[in-house]
Amino acid sequence: MPREVRFLLLMENYRYTEEMEVRDYECDLSGIVNNANYLHYLEHARHKFLNAVGISFVDWVAQGVHMVVVRIELDFLNSLRSGDRFVVGVNTERISRLRFGLLQDMYRLPDHHAILKAKVIATVINEEGRPVLPKTLESLLTD
Amino acid sequence: MPREVRFLLLMENYRYTEEMEVRDYECDLSGIVNNANYLHYLEHARHKFLNAVGISFVDWVAQGVHMVVVRIELDFLNSLRSGDRFVVGVNTERISRLRFGLLQDMYRLPDHHAILKAKVIATVINEEGRPVLPKTLESLLTD
Amino acid sequence: MPREVRFLLLMENYRYTEEMEVRDYECDLSGIVNNANYLHYLEHARHKFLNAVGISFVDWVAQGVHMVVVRIELDFLNSLRSGDRFVVGVNTERISRLRFGLLQDMYRLPDHHAILKAKVIATVINEEGRPVLPKTLESLLTD
Amino acid sequence: MPREVRFLLLMENYRYTEEMEVRDYECDLSGIVNNANYLHYLEHARHKFLNAVGISFVDWVAQGVHMVVVRIELDFLNSLRSGDRFVVGVNTERISRLRFGLLQDMYRLPDHHAILKAKVIATVINEEGRPVLPKTLESLLTD
């Protein structure tokens, strides 16, 4: 399949994509990105996605509202190395009445070699300490 | 159940335990440990466990042998906060001919409140780029 | 000079010492601890020292009081590697009416090989946004 | 001074500039970027600058050549917060026969509010363990 077509498919398949670049300090002594940094990349893409739909993690914290990650599944398919550019795609999924999933895939650029597949399951705890699903999030899960 | 008994159970249930303490820089603006740092804690406990049975991650890298994590499942049960002490317990499990699992649980100290359950599935790639299960690891999975 | 004597000198020379151990994820692709992690080590030792004299960074933040670092000087003398143990010694110094210095030295263990010398200059901003020097800190600088 | 003019001045004053954005995980419980992350930002900008003039940190490591930072001076002028964009400017300076300085300033965008001034003094250790100043670096210090 020619590269141009794959690129278009990728871009259309996700609700949100964020491009990033590996920084040298993110690589460990095995010469590749240290596993924990993939969680950093995923969190950053997730927060940017939520920002784009009007949800600010920082504002929520200031109001005593917390998005709480309850489970993460990570499939490591290939490693990123110093200088690699990559894209994180984000999709959403309803898990239960109060839980939602963020499906996040990572591809190296420009060849779209698959790097990682992640499923992040979260809920929201409001200022009274109760789990809720705010309307802004609700609407992301239905359309 | 009295605390003393729970403590003894905990200590006997794992092949290896590593005690650590949350450092302030590991907490993010929501006031709790940032998710990615749990992967750091798990990796450190894992490497210490492997060191204790004679496997050095660093020496392996120097010989071109790499332990490759292929999947991680994390269940976040509670959060750690600034100053919390905690223990990471490590157990092993055979997954397939070439894959093994490290079951890692995290408890806050001194109350042994459960913080996180993790399953880390890995394999080893030797200097010729082939997946192998070195004897030192093999013996950890059988007894 | 025999090692035992050096050890005694070291222990007596600092107001506070904190022992730590290099974790593999703190090393970068050059095989040694990445520079930024020395700031992490120094911050952790500093916060532990302040805790020991009754100052909690976290409690201060909760009250709107912030310790603000205004300048850091770091002399890198030698590198730490995977598995190295080390000690951070902390001393205090008055810089000006509202500024104080924390002199922090790092030595590898058990040989006390010098790793790093740091001077961290800080002040405190109170809940009204004004620089102050709380009495607890003041007393650290005079005796 | 109108913003456009300041922007042009900034861009002309540095040999190299790198734009970046604060990620939420880089902020600590005081709500601002944790100090150690400024060293990460500076290192990334430095490596990108050196890459742009043909020096690859990673390739050097593979050849046994190491750029060694011997001293860092950091003046913290203002804090960066979640979501802030910023630019790191890099200039060079000869310090001695075998040492060079990288002068790195950080400004918030789009208002060019000064955040940090840094002086990073480094040397290069060749594959035989001797300090050298490779020609590529030498030429950066003379014109």
| Beta-strand percent range of chain A | 35-45%
Q: Structural class of the secondary structure composition of chain A?
A: alpha+beta
The separation of the N and C termini of chain A measures 30 Å
Average pLDDT of chain A works out at 90
List keywords for this structure.
homotetramer; 143 residues; alpha+beta; Thiol Ester Dehydrase, Chain A; 6-stranded antiparallel beta sheet; 4 helices; elongated; disordered N terminus
Explain what the structure shows.
The structure is a homotetramer of 143-residue chains. Chain A is an alpha+beta fold. Chain A has one domain: Thiol Ester Dehydrase, Chain A (Roll), CATH 3.10.129. In chain A, strand 5 and strand 6 form a beta hairpin. In chain A, strands 1, 2, 3, 4, 5 and 6 form a six-stranded antiparallel sheet that branches. Chain A is 30% helix and 36% strand. Chain A is built from four helices and six strands, in the order H-E-H-H-E-E-E-E-E-H. Chains in contact: A-B, A-C, A-D, B-C, B-D, C-D. At the A-B interface, helix 2, helix 3 and strand 2 of A face helix 2, helix 3 and strand 2 of B.
Task: Draw up the topology in text.
The structure is a homotetramer of 143-residue chains.
Chain A: H1 3-13, E1 16-21, H2 35-52, H3 57-62, E2 66-76, E3 85-94, E4 100-109, E5 114-125, E6 131-132, H4 135-142
Antiparallel strand pairs in A: 1-3, 2-5, 3-4, 4-5, 5-6
